[in-house]
Design goal:
Helices cover 23% and strands 33% of the residues. By secondary structure, the protein is α+β, with helices and mostly antiparallel strands.
């Protein structure tokens, strides 16, 4: 498997408002990508067993395309995970947040381990979420390579990202649908 962090450089994604991609997406894909409720809750509703595999969480350099969401902090924490439904990989997620967010007692980000960040964020009483951006990822991107290393056929992958704000902190969360995600099936159950 690729080394952590999977996403090591900007430019592999071209994040845009969801409306910019609407002509390329099926209605089912639009529903998965534009849904502003908890993705963790949605995934849990679609499988019997949900799990999180932590790829890594450590200090890293903020990528240029992330800076507009988080400011000029050079030192950030990056957390990357794979979300599994019924032992199959469905989502690669990358979360980026300033170092001071680690010290925010209310958020308790330093001790998540294999627990889902989304479930934790959606339990915050003051949670706010930005508009969702969408991007396509080529099979040659690092996430595309991860998808293939997990045993899946190369194709364009779709992802979304938004900034969450809680406890006076900002967290940028990108979620790319990989592997067995129903987003790529011709019929998607809701």
């Amino acid at each position: 498997m690729l080394d952590f962090p999977i996403v090591t450089r900007g430019g592999e994604a071209h994040w845009q408002a969801a409306s910019a991609w609407a002509h390329l997406l099926s209605p089912q894909q639009q529903q998965w990508l534009s849904d502003d409720s908890s993705l963790t809750a949605k995934l849990k509703a679609h499988c019997s067993q949900f799990s999180v595999h932590l790829l890594g969480q450590q200090q890293a350099t903020l990528l240029a395309d992330e800076a507009r969401w988080l400011g000029d902090d050079d030192a950030v924490t990056v957390r990357e995970v794979i979300l599994y439904c019924d032992s199959k990989p469905w989502v690669f997620a990358r979360s980026v947040f300033p170092q001071q967010a680690l010290q925010a007692t209310q958020l308790n980000l330093a001790h998540l381990g294999n627990r889902p960040l989304g479930e934790h964020l959606f339990s915050q009483p003051d949670l706010q979420r930005s508009a969702i951006e969408i991007s396509a990822f080529s099979p040659h991107s690092r996430v595309g390579q991860l998808h293939q290393q997990l045993g899946f056929t190369a194709h364009t992958l779709w992802g979304r990202r938004s900034r969450f704000s809680a406890a006076g902190q900002h967290i940028l969360v990108a979620e790319v649908f990989i592997g067995a995600a129903p987003l790529y099936h011709t019929k998607v159950s809701e």
